Amino acid sequence: MLQKSIIKRQKLYFISISLIFIFLLSFAGTGIAQQKQSIVKSLSDDIAQIAETVGPAVVNIDVVRYVETSPFGSQFNDPFFERFFEQFEEYRKRIPQKGAGSGFIVDKEGHILTNEHVVHNAEEIKVTLSDGREFIGEVVGSDITTDMAIVKIDANDLPIAELGDSDSLRVGEIVIAIGNPYGLEKTVTMGVVSAKGRDINAGSDGQEYRNLIQTDTAINLGNSGGPLLNTDGEVVGINTAIIPYAQGIGFAIPVSVAQRNLDDLITLGKVRRSWLGVYIQQVTPEIAEQFDLAEAEGVLVGDIIEDSPAEKAGLVRGDVIISVNDIEVNTPQELQDTIRALEIGERAELIVKRNGEESNIMVDIAEMPSDEVVETKEKVFSEQTGIKVEEVTPEIAREANLPWVKGLVITDIIPGSSADDMGLRRGDIILEANRNELSSIAEWEEIINQLETGDTLLLLVFRDGHTYYVPIKIEEIE
């Protein structure tokens, strides 16, 4: 009986402990649920507060562009017909095309930051503030490369959006977008930073955008130029692009880019850029082999722009830039970004490999001339071959704007060959083969006959006024 009594008490004890444990779990679960609800409520309140605080600084931008059309229809929009129908010029029509976007006020004097593509070629700009006031806007500065523009309105003491730190953004961080998608004013959406440092091609003209913030925050047509905000209500990006066939993928320009260029855009109407003055390309294993490099490193100089800082410093075609001010560069983008980070007038030290030997070259960084092409002339090459050549004649040199009569012109390309895949084309002029200058078919054949299947042939090609290197593989002749 005593043993049964002990067992009964033990059962009661365990039942009591279990009930207490269940009660505590239930209480804890209720507490966790309440805590979660409190966190969500706090986040909701914060986002609403951000929208109320920053919203007045976000504006709607409506633009009108005019397109000229032929009085005889689009089928006659051809230079031949244009000359033929000049007598009917008075009947030409100018058709208005409307567009819309967003922007945000960056100072109390009425300067508004937006995308360049929002106001590109606009003849009429109307800016509508959040309080309903309307102003005529004027573009006072723009930059196609960074897709930024400053629109000025005649107003004072305006609410402004505070600029934050886009460099400290982390993937997964919550961000908020405010804009006017599809003309729906003051639209607020929320998401996270999906990725950083994205490079994409977007827009009808295939504009290349670099180092963008990717976000799943809903961004639609009309959001362009509006702010992307962090949870402190600071602008960390300028909403600029979407991929129309994808859902939940939007892109923004880091605000750090805007901060570097804002003063130039407002005071000078343009962005000043540091400039070296070289056409550059990736060092592939094939190029490394031809230039006696132990590995594919650095960035190859394919051509030098006349009277540029690079030419004045003594850089020559075929140099491989290894570093700038002890910062290693292994891609054209890295070299471009490193040079652009330098101040105009600053003296930079380059480590360069030339003919297998390393040397230091000092260069004075200058401002890029406004008529120069900003984008890096990077070429991406594959590994195949197959071309036919002829000697350059005075007529060919004149047509190609070649400053001398030498080299070999490509007259035919075998479809599917390395030359075809690499992008070589008829009319390209080969100046060198394996670092040897060419002036005759005999010189070309002498070099080719020494090569075996699988060897690399390094060509120096002239096209559109400058040169670049192309490595191709010698294939077995079938």
In the CATH scheme, the class of the largest domain would be Mainly Beta
CATH architecture of the largest domain: Beta Barrel
| Helix vs. strand class | alpha+beta
Give the terminus-to-terminus CA distance.
Answer: 102 Å
Unreliable stretches (pLDDT < 50, length at least 5) are: 371-384
What's the average pLDDT? Answer: 80
What does the largest sheet look like? Answer: 7 strands, antiparallel
Shape: elongated
Fraction of residues in helix:
10-25%
User: What is the subunit arrangement here?
Assistant: single chain
Kindly report the name of the CATH homologous superfamily of the largest domain.
Trypsin-like serine proteases
Annotated CATH topology of the largest domain? Thrombin, subunit H
What amount of the residues lies in strands?
A: 25-35%
| Number of extended strands | 27
Kindly describe this structure.
This protein is an alpha+beta fold and 478 residues long. The protein folds into four domains: 56-152, Trypsin-like serine proteases (Thrombin, subunit H, Beta Barrel), CATH 2.40.10.10; 166-267, Trypsin-like serine proteases (Thrombin, subunit H, Beta Barrel), CATH 2.40.10.10; 274-367, Pdz3 Domain, CATH 2.30.42.10; 387-473, PDZ domain (Pdz3 Domain). The chain has ten helices and 27 strands. It has helices at residues 2-54, 79-84, 116-119, 255-267, 285-290, 309-313, 332-340, 394-399, 418-422, 441-449, and strands spanning 58-69, 93-105, 111-114, 124-128, 134-136, 138-143, 148-152, 174-179, 187-202, 207-215, 227-229, 235-242, 250-254, 274-275, 278-282, 299-304, 320-324, 327-328, 347-354, 357-364, 366-367, 387-391, 408-413, 429-433, 436-437, 456-463, 466-473. The strands form five sheets. The chain has a seven-stranded antiparallel β-sheet with strand order 5-4-1-2-3-7-6. The protein has a six-stranded antiparallel barrel with strand order 8-9-10-13-12-11. β19 (347-354) and β20 (357-364) form a beta hairpin. The longest helix is centred in the N-terminal third of the chain and has 53 residues, at 2-54. It is elongated and about 80 Å long. The termini are far apart. Mean pLDDT is 80; it is low at 371-384.
